[in-house]
Amino acid sequence: MPHTQYKIKPLQHYAITRAYICYLLLISVFLCLSFNSFALTNVGDLKSQQKSEILFNIHAYYVEDLALQQSFESSQQFEALLAQLDPYSKYLNEQELEALFSSTNGRYTGLGIEVKQQDQKIVIINTINNSPAALAGIQKNDVVLAINQQPIVNKNIDQVAQMIKSSDTASVILTIERANALQAMDFDIIRSEINIESVTSSLSSFGIGYLAINSFSNHTLHDVARHITVLQSNYGSALSGLVIDLRDNPGGTLQSAVAVSDLFLQSGTIVTTKGRFYDANQHYRAKKGDILNGAPIAVLINENSASAAEILAAALKDNHRATLIGSQSFGKGSVQSLIPLGNGNTALKLTTARYFTPSGQSIDGVGVTPDVAINQSGLSQIDKVVIIKNEQGSDDPLWQNSDVTDPLLLKAQQLLTMK
């Protein structure tokens, strides 16, 4: 049958990590950005022509040349074929596709919680600033026990996400277990639109800037440049150094990671991608111009730093532009592309390439190794900024009341002041 040809659009690292590892539960019709291959959309209900189009694109563009049969007698056979794909490839229905577009612009409708599966439990590792979950009092390390009074014992993240997604009302009741609390607590959280601030920053009295990048969206390049300009203006001179905090950053788009990397590099390779079709093979190089004019950089990473965050960390490390501090990163080294289907209202999100660091290494399943290894659980965004604010002697009681210590940040500042 004839197939409409589209120019496919690279999506790489849409705030996605592999199943069961931290990603945003942004609850709307499209719940989150990372599900197992075709797990929550009933692809068995697709028409024969739609299935044929999906298989055609897999044959043409998937990163591996799979021996997929061209015909199938049942929906179960079709789903079994799709199960051979990696966890990042997924059919997107109309609602999911719209939510994906919104996510790249930093807009979500949901609760605003970031979770991971740990010891068969669903654990909160962060809440988005000013999100419904944060305002309701959900805290880091809270354990989700039930959703709308339905226990989630032995359920994985995909299943939990589906339970929240299928809630009949705008509000979702999370039953939470909290350390040192005598009993479980219920939080009635109303879903609402969340605008993600991809970058936050602060300044120490030593002229060292602190830049936390929370995700890589269409706005991140502009936000990073704007924050650095403000930091330099507040200091009254060029920064003496910069800490880039990528801890718990689950990723974003390839283009954003490349553009942010290029801000700090005068030359050299940023990342290369390799796949089976021509356009999947790209070599991204830095253009002349360093926004910091050579001031030293320290990058903080942890086990939840993934995809686009790993591209930036590896680009700065391999080009000897920054010192990496923390623990081994997550290890997501694949590129996803968005392929429109039918009339363009649905799409196939497909792994079309793998990326390689400037030194030629694939970090897929391995991660980026820090120069200075310090193991530490990821801090919430507010905790990250607290350290810098305290050093400035801020009069804000919010900062004064915190006794947070951050060995990664302290080590970064030590290294930067020695340069």
UniProtKB/TrEMBL annotation:
InterPro entries hit by this protein: ClpP/crotonase-like_dom_sf, PDZ, PDZ_6, PDZ_sf, Peptidase_S41A, Tail-specific_protease
Parts forming coiled coils: none
Keywords, in A-Z order: Hydrolase, Membrane, Protease, Serine protease, Transmembrane, Transmembrane helix
Domain of life: Bacteria
Entry keyword annotation includes Transmembrane helix: yes
TM annotation in the entry: 20-40
CDD domains: cpPDZ_CPP-like, Peptidase_S41_CPP
A Pfam family that the UniProt record links to this protein: Peptidase_S41
Entry keyword Transmembrane: yes
Domain PDZ: 97-179
PANTHER family xref list: CARBOXY-TERMINAL PROCESSING PROTEASE CTPA (PTHR32060:SF30), TAIL-SPECIFIC PROTEASE (PTHR32060)
Family stated for the protein in its record: Belongs to the peptidase S41A family.
Protein name (database record): S41 family peptidase
